[in-house]
Design goal:
This protein is of the alpha/beta class. The protein has a single domain, classed as 3-Layer(aba) Sandwich (Rossmann fold). It has seven helices and ten strands. An eight-stranded mixed beta sheet has the order 3-2-1-4-5-6-10-8, sandwiched between helices. Strands 7-9 form a two-stranded parallel ribbon. Helix 1 packs across helix 7, helix 2 packs across helix 4 and helix 4 packs parallel to helix 6. The protein is globular and about 50 Å long.
């Protein structure tokens, strides 16, 4: 599969690039600083430097001829999200550029606190953990909410992945999934497994149009 990966220098994005290359995909990694992409040079890897991800005209050539797009974009802190939102503005331009380039499949990472609360979350999570996270990281989640709205309103065949707290642990492939909900009792997951989930959904049409909760 020919993929374009946004957010390729982040913790999840680097794993997406690495795993995609190992799986035999062709990858265009879109970055602002190529020095941060600590993936070895590869015959199926193209690195494209784009400073402004809201510049549709710059994005279209990076999407032409691609079969799918993976976004691992997101603010690194609440302050950054407040001052310069990342995911929302970028995804509005990305989905529009995808339409112009004729690319329809999209997988994007979001976050578990954006899922609506359900009894399966448990009282502790519903009453304390999730409300606290939503308050402390309100600008990060506001940015991701704008992103999810832009994606849902697009003509793409989209899947949003909503993980809980991310850890730098090895890939396992042994995580749980929940459709349009959080995984009951799910508190953590490795960045490597989030990358696996993003790539796996691309070839799973049953996930199209859904937000998938994942956790170990």
């Amino acid at each position: 599969m020919k993929l374009t990966v946004f957010g390729a220098t982040g913790g999840v994005g680097r794993e997406v690039v690495r795993q995609a290359l190992e799986a035999g995909h062709e990858v265009t990694a879109v970055v602002r600083d190529p020095a941060r992409l600590d993936v070895l040079a590869h015959g199926r890897l193209r690195v494209a430097v784009v400073r402004d991800l809201t510049d549709e005209d710059a994005l279209v050539p990076l999407l032409a001829g691609r079969e799918a797009v993976v976004s691992a974009l997101g603010a690194t802190s609440n302050k950054q999200a407040r001052l310069t939102p990342v995911a929302g503005p970028a995804l509005r331009s990305i989905v529009s550029a995808m339409d112009r380039a004729g690319v329809s499949r999209l997988a994007a990472v979001s976050a578990a606190p954006l899922a609506p609360p359900t009894p399966a979350d448990g009282v502790f999570a519903r009453v304390l953990v999730l409300p606290l996270l939503r308050r402390v990281l309100r600008d990060v989640y506001a940015d991701l909410a704008v992103m999810e709205t832009a994606i849902a309103a697009s003509d793409t065949r989209w899947t949003v992945i909503r993980p809980p707290r991310l850890l730098n642990r090895p890939w396992t492939g042994a995580y749980r999934r929940a459709v349009d909900a959080n995984v009951p009792g799910g508190r953590v997951i490795s960045r490597a497994d989030v990358a696996d989930a993003l790539l796996t959904t691309l070839s799973d049409p049953s996930t199209s149009g859904h937000a998938i909760g994942i956790a170990t």
